[in-house]
Design brief:
Helix content: 25-40%
Strand content: 15-25%
Mean pLDDT: 90
Bound molecules: iron/sulfur cluster
Order of helices and strands: HEEEHEEHEHHHEHEHEEHHEE
Largest sheet: 8 strands, mixed
Low-confidence stretches: 1-10
Strand order of the largest sheet: 6-7-8-3-9-10-12-11
Structural class: alpha/beta
Number of helices: 10
């Protein structure tokens, strides 16, 4: 076996997903002839890896490009440039047939379970439709298989004949999870999966996702604007601002020692259980600049308290401060 093949094997063993310099720019149309007048840089040079069987949390304010990153990885929208390797294979090079097979391995769960479920189909059909289309289980095992998937997700067999409107929000999200799991995925993009649910139900769904991960060795990209939710499920965290990652690292490192001024501001906004507890809140001033016209230099400089002259001119490089904790900020430039 050549060293290249060995590298590939090691890589496949370790990282299920490798995203390199991913960009997604949307054209802005306008003017008299409706031509392209600019572009919205929704995802702008994003790179990260996720190890098999782990969860990476992707956090940031709404509009920072988290969801577009998830969808571009799955090729639900086409990238502008960059590469996405899934199990060592370039997702964007996959032809129709291969993409069809990949789609079962890479699934997505959306924020609003109701609008992502067909109101006209009974739940058993919703969960099983794609299983039949992909011939994932032999005909004679199909019914038992769907029942087992439903039980794994905390649903009952008699729910098969009911319709989505007969379920609560939490149960509907269980149906969405069951529909994704029925396809035997290895990787799931969870796009704000609990944001629309009550706090008590949120915990149940998070616990279900964790149980399923352990049982099935699943890998998640967990997208959320809520840091306290992300802390409970993530092994690693990526903080996004205006289309780019500003800080990444292990959850413990990021929570105990946030470095980037934007990450610090996000952390200081987490509600405290004790209302009398005094913390130094950093209030983020100003609006998020338009991704169609991002600021020069560090994209955060228009809202950063620590802004220096260099920040307005030069974009900071990614710097590993140890243990894979990477930050993009001139405060950590080598002296
Ligand atoms: Fe603030 Fe400068 Fe760091 Fe950007 S590079 S976050 S402006 S200190």
């Amino acid at each position: 076996m050549g060293s290249e093949e060995m590298d590939k094997l090691v890589h496949q063993e370790d990282n299920i997903l490798e995203v390199s310099h991913l960009k997604k720019y949307f054209p802005v149309k306008g003017g008299f002839f409706g031509g392209v007048t600019g572009e919205v840089k929704a995802v702008d040079d994003v790179s990260f890896q996720i190890k098999r069987g782990t969860t990476m949390g992707l956090v940031g304010e709404s509009g920072c490009g988290k969801s577009t990153t998830g969808r571009t990885i799955l090729r639900l929208i086409e990238k502008t440039s960059g590469t996405v390797l899934f199990n060592g294979e370039d997702v964007n090079q996959a032809d129709k047939k291969k993409l069809r097979a990949l789609r079962t391995k890479m699934q997505i769960i959306f924020q609003d379970p109701y609008s992502s479920l067909s109101p006209r189909l009974p739940v058993g059909e919703i969960i099983g439709e794609a299983v039949r289309q992909h011939n994932l289980v032999p005909k004679e095992q199909y019914n038992d298989y769907i029942t087992q998937v439903m039980l794994n997700c905390g649903l009952q067999e008699y729910h098969k004949d009911r319709y989505p409107h007969e379920f609560s929000g939490g149960q509907r999200q269980r149906i969405c999870i069951a529909r994704a799991l029925a396809l035997k995925p290895e990787f799931i993009v969870c796009d704000e999966p609990v944001s629309a649910l009550d706090v008590s139900i949120q915990a149940q769904i998070i616990n279900l996702l964790k149980e399923l991960q352990e049982k099935l060795n699943l890998t998640y990209l967990f997208i959320s604007h809520d840091l306290s939710v992300v802390e409970h499920i993530s092994d690693t965290i990526g903080v996004m601002y205006l289309g780019g990652l500003v800080e990444t690292g292990n959850t413990e490192d990021i929570f105990s020692n946030p470095l980037h001024p934007y990450t610090k501001a996000l952390f200081s906004a987490i509600p405290m259980p004790d209302p009398d507890m005094k913390i130094n809140r950093t209030i983020l001033e100003g609006d998020i600049p338009s991704p169609a016209n991002p600021p020069k230099g560090c994209k955060f400089h228009t809202r950063c308290r620590d802004c220096m002259a260099v920040c307005k001119e030069t974009a900071p490089e990614a710097r590993d401060v140890g243990n894979g904790h990477v930050v993009r900020c001139h405060l950590y430039d080598a002296g």
